[in-house]
Amino acid sequence: MPDTPVSPLHPRPVIPRPARTEPGGQGGLILTAATRVSADTEARGTLTWLQRELGAATGLALATGDEASAQIRLSVDARAGLGSEGYRLIVDSEGAIIVGNDPAGVFYGAQTLRQLLPPDAYRDAPLGGTVWALPAISVTDAPRFRWRGAMLDIARHFSPKREILRFIDLLAMHKLNVLHLHLTDDQGWRIEIRRYPRLTEVGSWRTESQVGAARPPVFDGRPHGGFLTQDDIREIVAYADARHVAVVPEIDVPGHSQAAIHAYPELGESGLIPVGTRWGVFDEVLAVTDNVLEFYKNVFDELLELFPSTYIHVGGDECPKTQWKDSASAQKRIRDEGLADEDELQSWFVRQLDEHLTARGRRLLGWDEILEGGLAPGATVMSWRGEEGGIAAARAGHDVVMSPTATSYLDYKQSESEDEPIKVGTLLRVEDVYTAETVPPGLTEEESRHVLGAQVNVWVEHIDTPRRLDYMVFPRLSAFAEKVWSADERDYSEFEPRLRRHLERLDAAGVEYRPLDGPRPWHTRPGVGGWGE
Questions:
Q1: Which residues are within 8 A (CB) of 56 and not within 5 positions of it... i.e. 6 or more apart?
Q2: Per-residue pLDDT band at 373 (split at 50, 70, 90)
Q3: Whether the Cβ atoms of residue 256 and residue 318 lie closer than 8 Å to each other
Q4: H or E stretch including 502?
Q5: What is the Cα–Cα distance from 291 to 6, expressed in whole angstroms?
Q6: 200-222 burial string, b = 16+ CB within 10 Å, else e?
Q7: Residue 168 region by backbone torsions, left for phi larger than 0, else alpha for psi between -120 and 50, else beta
Q8: For residues 159 and 465, what is the distance between their CA atoms, to the nearest angstrom?
Q9: What is the spatial distance between Cα 49 and Cα 132, in angstroms, rounded to a whole number?
Q10: Cβ(509)–Cβ(173) below 8 Å
């Protein structure tokens, strides 16, 4: 909580920080039962969202009015010079006006308006007694990058639909616009494919899960599983679209495919294998036969029916070549296609999928290993093994999303304290996320244009409950959001006081974030006010 009282009409800090903020005149706008909201045709989606969210928190009807009578007016004007996803918000004693360059810009203006209200604006029911005051202010704003994303792994530990919808709301709150869903891996297949029902009938369940990173591994002895139906996916995509979040699906190939091979052993090189129960990288990979390619083209065709996203992620990471070296069919493929080695064989496999997706108007996206052995011309690279893959791709004329482990992996430990509930990876503090630069140094201006933006990744081998997810993601995600939205130079000493005020919003929204001053001892004690196993 703040140390000193805040006037109801005092501007509250906005995260991510807007490009330009100017104080208005005297007074401001008080929302009351008489407050009306209007919107032009393109802004009606935001009007519906604003009425639902603020109506629940304030208990006010915020009824729809006409432009002449409404106190809050929303509109789209591509001629306003605001730039893609940009907006202008003006509040004075007469009302509040949000003009967006496009519908997304109007939505982000409404997100800023909500942040200017008391933190209780993020509750789901009114508490009573709150003055719903907007300060007099003028905000002009637009994002620095077009790709502002977060990856959620639901393959290792499954997240049900309700948790994914909640995650989308939290992304939208921070003006992030991409949810990358990691849907398949060795430890589970999480999306219904009608043509191949065994992928979820047997591939979505494993017998037990590794606990922690001990060697030899320790297991919990409990089955784990779950998957999203195609109707679940349609709902998630529609929910995200209403909040201007694009959902990018990932089917990981040709490595990390044990669950698929368990369901259909003919996909692999070694017959029937179990769904994975350990974390790590394993030798079992897909075969590179015509039948396997046909199988995955059919899978991606069903995916395209569900996800309108331009980008479709094919993984491509951590694919050992051991089985291919000993495989008669893989070696024949290398000879028949005139390939140099197994690295080029993986590149050939990815190119077949790229051609399939390109012919259907989509773009292939993959982890930076897809650079090895040559890359399809239209492919986009997600650079995770440091910045090197992104630099190489940008210099070769490929679009890039930066996601280096050292500054982007939100499953990594947040301090060296023994009280941290999860201690894997290298140290990644809030300030490390905030101060890391998105565009790698050394790129020319032309090469830098290939950097679409950045994303953080949430791998969930060690995150098996929503409470753990909150703790690992927040408030580091808040710092990341400002990094990819705001073009100004970043100073963590200036950001941290604003972040502490922002935590009041997360409190109201029910987010169980990690405190900025460090973990509490009870965070590591199961069942005692913390994780509750």
A1: 123, 124, 125, 126
A2: confident
A3: yes
A4: helix 492-509
A5: 66
A6: beebbbbeebbbeeeeeeeeeee
A7: alpha
A8: 8
A9: 18
A10: yes
Q: Kindly state the tokens that stand for 311.
A: 């980008």
Q: Tell me the pLDDT of the chain averaged across its residues.
A: 94
Residue 238 DSSP one-character state: H
Would you say residue 438 has pLDDT above 60?
A: yes
Lookup: tokens for 518: 């460090």
Residue 99 and residue 75 in contact, taking contact as beta carbons nearer than 8 Å: yes
Rg of the Cα trace of the chain? 24
Single-letter code of the amino acid located at 427? L
Listed as own residue / partner, the contacts of 504-507 with beta carbons closer than 8 Å and 24 or more positions apart are 504/1, 504/2, 504/119, 505/115, 505/119, 505/121, 505/122, 505/173, 506/122, 506/474, 506/475, 506/478, 507/119
pLDDT at 233 over 60: yes
Map residue 180 onto helix, strand or coil: strand
Residue whose pair of structure tokens reads 């304030």 in the numeric block: 58
Q: Which of 389, 385, 477, 515 is nearest to 148 (CA)?
A: 477
Strand blocks (E) in 403-495: 451-458
Q: Are 400 and 445 in contact (CB under 8 A)?
A: no
What type of residue sits at position 520? R
Which residues form the catalytic set? 185, 256, 318
Angle 103-116/161-173 helices, nearest 10 degrees? 80
Distance between CA atoms of residues 62 and 33, nearest Å:
7
Contact present, 430 and 407 (Cβ < 8 Å): no
Cα atoms in the Cβ-side hemisphere of radius 13 Å centred on 256: 21
For 497, phi then psi, to 5°, come to -60, -35
Task: Give the count of beta carbons closer than 10 Å to the beta carbon of residue 52.
Answer: 11
Q: How far is CA 277 from CA 155, 255, 268, 308, 447, in A?
A: 12, 16, 18, 32, 42
Kindly provide the residue ranges of all beta strands, DSSP E only, lying in 233-339, ordered along the sequence. Answer: 246-253, 311-315
Structure confidence by residue, pLDDT tens digits, 174-225: 999 999 999 999 999 999 999 999 999 999 999 999 999 889 999 999 999 9
Whose CA is closest to 275, among 152, 189, 181, 159? 189
- Whether pTM exceeds 0.85: yes
- Say which amino acid occupies 304: L
| % the chain with pLDDT above 70 | 95
Span 42-61, average pLDDT: 98
